[in-house]
Amino acid sequence: MAPFLDTVYTKRLNCYTFERISKIEQQLEGVDLIFTQKTTGNQYCINEDLPTFAFELSYLKNKKEQNGWLFDQNKKTDFYALVTAIFQDDNEYSSCKITLVNRKKLIVKLSDMGFQAHRMKNYRRDGEHGKVKVPFLNPKTQGYLYWSKNNKAEQPLNLIIRLEWLLRNNLAKRLI
After folding, report:
1. Model pLDDT for residues 158-171, shown as the tens digit of each residue
2. Where are the beta strands (DSSP E) in the chain?
């Protein structure tokens, strides 16, 4: 998929250049691409290798809770690239939608809603495996938490957010 996405970026990024990152050290820091603004030289780290559109809030490592990649201060990610509506013709990718989510804006919005990283333990302790209801999110229009308590060793707590909510709240922008 990366070669296809590179073609899309080349055609659509009029004000930016991009560099695909191949060094594993940078990828582990949450950097798959670097977009560079042509006029200012500002660089933005992009993570496009998301296993789901769930945002990992926390997980267990050696039975100790760790911040997930959304709240992990060691991650350099500025934006998450959500790729949806992927189509293939004759075994080649032909089109998709790419939505860039601003990590900092998302964290600020969640904080403004009363949701901070240090509160993750409360949701783990109170929740059952599966959907976890939280008072500040409408599961039908905004999103919900999902705790993989029984089926994954690291027991991740993920925030599942509706794409339209991200767009409506200016936390994301559709690239194509």
Report:
1. 889 889 999 999 99
2. 16-20, 33-37, 43-47, 54-61, 64-67, 79-89, 92-102, 130-132, 143-147, 157-161, 172-174
